[in-house]
Amino acid sequence: MAADRRLASRDIPRAGSDRSRRHGHRVRVAAATPGRRDRHSPDTRYARSARRNRGRARMTASLLVIAPHADDEILGAGAIMARAAQSGARIAVVVATNGAASDPGRDAETLANTRRDECRAGLEQMLGYVPALLFLDQPDGGLSSTAISPSRMSALADFVAEVAPDTILVTDPADGHPDHKAAFGLASRIIGSGIGRVLQVMPVSQRVDRRFDPTGYDAIAVGDFAERKRAALACHRSQLDPVAGFSLAPDICDAFTTVEYVRTAYDRLDRSNDAIPAAHFDSLFTQSPDPWRYDSEPYERDRFQRTIAALAGRRYRSALELGCANGALTEQFAPLCDRLLATDASQAALSAARDRIGARANVVLEQRTMPQEMPDARFDLIVASDMLYYLGLDGVVALMAAIEQSAMPDARIFLASYLGETETVITGEMAAEIAIAHLPGWTRIHAERTERLRIDVMARI
């Protein structure tokens, strides 16, 4: 969309410029602590790199908080905003949806107006003033990171240009609420366009749902801001005393007025955000032709079965598999394709794939590093299964641009993402939402998830 190009091409002053410094001294916004080891994590060297990225304190002169709904900014980041403001940082808030669906017992238009008023009052209680504030007025429960109207995207572009944030804080895509996932995707579009330095996430709905695992996050005590935060939450009366809808229970408010959590998803100046190099995977596949136990691990077998089920019922003329590893999945969906090009950056992985697949007339195996070496061809199926989080945010953004150029008009893009702890800088959930947010004009035609896996199939509709 034209608004997207405008957002991406604006010459926004970066953190450290005269414009960003004038709003005050740099202040600390904490990053996350290391997560647990997992079989999907990279080797020790890259895990340590990710931990360094998460554990390093962040300095910001301008903080932009993107809240899917009015009250998420207070719940997830009230004390973070207050500390930053107290230290001289400029604060800005975007509220993405109108909040009109939170209580079906009330008139939607009246509720939307009420929630805007509550948002202003809550921010004034928390900060002592109402910061720069933009309401995108998207449908509550229907936020999309790609389907916002050009006029609202233009308003967002103007707002972001004025704020010139060097840190963007948004809801964690691990939150169960779809609006929280889409808000992260929207934030990834802003940071992916070159605006801002640091992208951090805050868990909100997963804490409300009492299913939050703090592994990988930095816990930030609310401390002296607790009473102020309680007063700010009390301004959101429609959420505390609904007629028939969602309610912020007292114990939930107590939890949020005790501690806040953040996790760093991206830092433009930190090289641990880069894609993990082929040498890492060469080492793994040299030690074993099946380092992740594709043939025996229940997760992998389930992933393969769900992949074939999602792809079945259609014949693919020309398919591309990214990150084919030892060819375990390649072998299973090759019968659905007239021609299948399977690629991997690791020569050792491809050697294992050749041993596994043998000579098949419709399968070609090639060593390619993505997205730099995207084939000069067109495909009606592109598969990126359990590999996006290895690319980092910049890599996923670039790959989606390359995929758009290579996709036939009737193409399907298949994304599978592991939902456990990876110790890469971005998680599988983050990678999936970044990918979807950078496919404007595409619609999700199939989605499913288990505790450990999410699958998204995209098409142009």
UniProtKB/TrEMBL annotation:
Pfam families assigned: NodS, PIG-L
Key word Transferase present: yes
UniProt cross-references to SUPFAM superfamilies, sorted A to Z: LmbE-like (SSF102588), S-adenosyl-L-methionine-dependent methyltransferases (SSF53335)
Biased composition regions of type Basic and acidic residues, renumbered to the chain: 1-19
GO BP field: methylation; oligosaccharide biosynthetic process
One Gene Ontology term of the molecular function aspect: S-adenosylmethionine-dependent methyltransferase activity
Region annotation (Disordered) ranges: 1-54
Record's keyword terms, sorted: Methyltransferase, Transferase
CDD domains xref list: AdoMet_MTases
Superkingdom: Bacteria
Identification of the protein by name: Methyltransferase domain-containing protein
Source organism per UniProt: Sphingomonas glacialis
